[in-house]
Structures are given as structure tokens and as C-alpha cells.
Amino acid sequence: MLDALDEGKQVVVDGQQEWRGSYAPCLVDGVIDLLLDGHRGPVSFQPERGWTDAEIARALAAVAGHDPSRILPMNGEAAMTGLDEGGLSYLPCLETVLERFVGDRRRCRDWVEAGEILLEAAE
Asked: Does 107 score more than 90 pLDDT?
């Protein structure tokens, strides 16, 4: 989705589906922090509840510096924002997760492109 936005494309996402994803590096950081702190017992790493895929996509577009109107919801759109029914989660807030994802993805893309240029030069 971020790659499509960075390429200037519109993105079609489900406007009814509740977002249930998480970004693995944030999850791993949270688990490591709890282990280092000696935490015992059950914990939750559930993402913030009450967001549709379309709302997450628009938030991602905004964090990445793109126009959120380039996100096109299919199947209509449910208004879920602010209906957080979940309990305490050890994941960072959504904006922090999206900012980290955008930075990580763009750095990764730059490294891959630099590696391809080096391979072409070596041939």
C-alpha cells in the first residue's frame, strides 16, 4: 500500500473490514521489553480496536505525506473510529506504529535499490 501511494497511485481497500493487523518490529520490541523487565503473566498485544482498513490506510497516507483522499474504500464505509473496546495493549499507539513502518519501509526500499545498482555495475 505504501509503495503504491509513493508511486502516486490510488489504493482501494475494504471500508467495512475492521483492522486487526500489527507491525512485527513493534510487537518484538514490546515482548523484549517485558522479558527484560521480568514481567510474568498474560499480556495483550492487540492492535487498537475500532478502525477499519480504510481508516488505517488514510492514516498511513497522511503519515507518509500523501493525500488521504487517494484511499478509495470499497463496500461502503463503516464509521468505527473511537470505538475502542479493547483493554490495555502493550503495542505503541497507532500513529507511532505507522511512522515507524513508513520509515522502515522507505529505508528498506532504498537499500534494495542501492543493491540492485551495485549488482548492475558489477556485471
From this structure: yes
